[in-house]
Amino acid sequence: MNIETYLEVLRKEVANYQVPVVDLIAVQTKDPFKVLVATILSARTKDEVTAEASERLFKQGGTVEDLAKIDVATLEKIIFPVGFYKNKAKYLAALPDKLAADFGSKVPNTMEGLLTLPGVGRKTANLVLAQAFGIPAICVDTHVHRIMNIWGYVETKTPEQTEMALRKKLPEKYWILVNSLLVAFGQGTCRPVGPHCDRCVLAESCLRRGVKPRKPRKTGKSNEVLRLVSWNVNGLRAVFKKGFMESLVEMAPDVLGLQEIKATVEQLPTELQSLPGYHSFFYSADRKGYSGVVTYTKEKPENVIRGIGDSRFDSEGRVLTLEFSNYFFINCYFPNSKHDLSRLDFKHDFNVRLQEFAEELAVIKSVVICGDFNVAHKEIDLANPRQNRKNAGFTPEECAWMDDFTAAGWIDSFRMKNKEPDQYSWWSYRSRARERNIGWRIDYHCVDKKSRKRIVDVDILQHIHGSDHCPVVLDFTR
Ligand code: SF4
């Protein structure tokens, strides 16, 4: 490969991508102190979160002197929810004294000096040298390390090894630039999970070392098959601003069940109130900004059932059922048992009632229950089962209900077709969990036992962003 050609192609390609947050702060402020602080905040944190936390912090602590006046507890509150915010608050609290004692309250412009500062490792130091001082330095983060190995330009196991390898072979004129290019490219196209090789400008020559091929998008699906899609959008207004209409084209659903819409119909933009090409059915919670589901369908249903006949659950807008000629589509947002498990009993009662409701319908015709079940059923369905055994969504009680539910004949359509690990539909916003694929599979399409043969295919659209969940797909015979 010719690295210069690759990087020049990418220079043009990423010109319209979102600029990585630290670069943006460097360009906007030209202030080494702000670049240093933003870089410390950015470790293991999404750019949007870093940008907001930096903005809040700079209002009160935008200089060394002002930062010195803020105590650790206040810093924690200001920078939350950046990853490892408690540790970072401690580092930031210690920073002014260290800078005052050793560097005259200025940010040092050497690797050695930067590495003595609290919370600063080689990656941070390189980024500060490059972005704040324009000194040739190669900041190797996860994207640079990963993509350089995918291209076969280096063969290394750790970011540190990649930095050393690049220092030997990468032309110096690219040292500063390479981080910005590959972070933007890694966030936009060559993503850690499901890289977009299908639309990549380097697709023809890239070696794709270690890349798990993305499933080809299913186009031209048969008229005999319905595409049923479920997605917990975690706020429909928010996801709309993050490219929902483009995602809709890609998902191409016949029926789309969205959960946790957090809005009443009047609060939504007109495109969502009545989605073009679809019939729209809403069921919102009594409480504003909470829970709620909507189902969009190309075919007009014969009947619509709101709720499951129990006001404890129905006031929360959790279950919306559409009846078609030969199946019921139940769009369901199961309760979360909560961090302190205070809603475990409530959730269990809901589960039991929902199952009764679905079983009554299954006597009449096929039933598909889609939605955020708020439980990972088996160890294969989450990245860290042992650490989460007592946590909401993977407690023995919640898994036991899922055992009972499937023992009663309900089929988890995804597991019927796919036994692979690392298949997740939800990731915490913290600690770059999605980028590292530390996730949970808690979104399902479950089908009554008599309808097993109607399950054609399943998919999890991990590349579709906009929520902390991604859409899940069931192709179901008409
Ligand atoms: S072809 Fe695929 S693996 Fe290679 S750079 Fe492009 S997105 Fe990444």
Automatic annotation (TrEMBL):
Its EC number is 4.2.99.18. The record marks 443 as: Important for catalytic activity. GO terms for biological process: base-excision repair, AP site formation; nucleotide-excision repair. DNA repair enzyme that has both DNA N-glycosylase activity and AP-lyase activity. The DNA N-glycosylase activity releases various damaged pyrimidines from DNA by cleaving the N-glycosidic bond, leaving an AP (apurinic/apyrimidinic) site. The AP-lyase activity cleaves the phosphodiester bond 3' to the AP site by a beta-elimination, leaving a 3'-terminal unsaturated sugar and a product with a terminal 5'-phosphate. CDD domains: ENDO3c. This is Endonuclease III. [4Fe-4S] cluster binds at residues 190, 197, 200, 206. Keywords: 4Fe-4S, DNA damage, DNA repair, DNA-binding, Glycosidase, Hydrolase, Iron, Iron-sulfur, Lyase, Magnesium, Manganese, Metal-binding. GO terms for molecular function: 4 iron, 4 sulfur cluster binding; class I DNA-(apurinic or apyrimidinic site) endonuclease activity; DNA binding; metal ion binding; oxidized pyrimidine nucleobase lesion DNA N-glycosylase activity. The active site is at 333, 372 (proton donor/acceptor), 469 (proton acceptor). Mg(2+) binds at residues 232, 260, 372, 374, 468-469. It comes from Desulfocapsa sulfexigens (strain DSM 10523 / SB164P1). InterPro entries: AP_endonuc_1, AP_endonuclease_F1_BS, DNA_glycosylase, Endo/exonu/phosph_ase_sf, Endo/exonuclease/phosphatase, Endonuclease-III-like_CS2, HhH-GPD_domain, HhH_base_excis_C. The record marks 374 as: Transition state stabilizer. The record marks 469 as: Interaction with DNA substrate. It catalyses: 2'-deoxyribonucleotide-(2'-deoxyribose 5'-phosphate)-2'-deoxyribonucleotide-DNA = a 3'-end 2'-deoxyribonucleotide-(2,3-dehydro-2,3-deoxyribose 5'-phosphate)-DNA + a 5'-end 5'-phospho-2'-deoxyribonucleoside-DNA + H(+). Its cofactor is [4Fe-4S] cluster; Mg(2+); Mn(2+).
